[in-house]
Design brief:
156 residues; alpha+beta; 5 strands; 31% helix; 22% strand; elongated
């Protein structure tokens, strides 16, 4: 058994220092975890809120979705889902907590993707009105799938 004796004054100082250290750790962890992550909207239950969210990221989209789907995520993550989830983790999302649940996908046509003539689409995945994942996608020979972050443009 280990016994520590101290005065009230030392105990108060010890508690205050411990509290300050905990607050500093929480703030530092929050700052470090947010690097590269997208802002998560408070509400995206309506089409207007979803379009506003995409626009807040820098995207101009046609306001009417091209497609809306309801998807049942599998109970276990396959290799394809694991690869897609790695893309999501880059931007602060994680599908792990949603396995086995029904989610909605809303797909919008992007009109301002830089340096491409191809059709680009933005997918937002929602569960209970909250964005849980998203990506930008272009099919075809020069197709791609990437995060929702607006690409940094090279200066000419």
């Amino acid at each position: 058994m280990f016994i520590v004796t101290m005065t009230k004054r030392k105990a108060v100082v010890f508690v205050l220092l411990g509290g300050l250290a905990a607050i500093a750790l929480i703030l530092l962890t929050g700052v470090l975890n947010r690097s590269g992550q997208l802002p998560i909207p408070k509400q995206t239950e309506t089409n207007e809120q979803r379009v506003d969210y995409l626009e807040s990221l820098g995207w101009a989209v046609v306001p009417d979705p091209i497609e809306t789907l309801e998807i049942l995520l599998p109970e276990e993550m396959s290799e394809a889902y694991a690869q897609y989830n790695a893309l999501q983790k880059e931007q602060g999302f994680d599908l792990t907590d949603y396995l086995g649940r029904r989610i909605q996908r809303f797909t919008y046509r992007v009109t301002n993707y830089p340096n491409t003539e191809n059709d680009v689409q933005a997918n937002l995945y929602l569960c209970a009105g909250t964005v849980i994942a998203g990506d930008l996608f272009s099919a075809g020979e020069e197709g791609f799938q990437t995060t929702l972050s607006f690409p940094e443009q090279e200066e000419e």
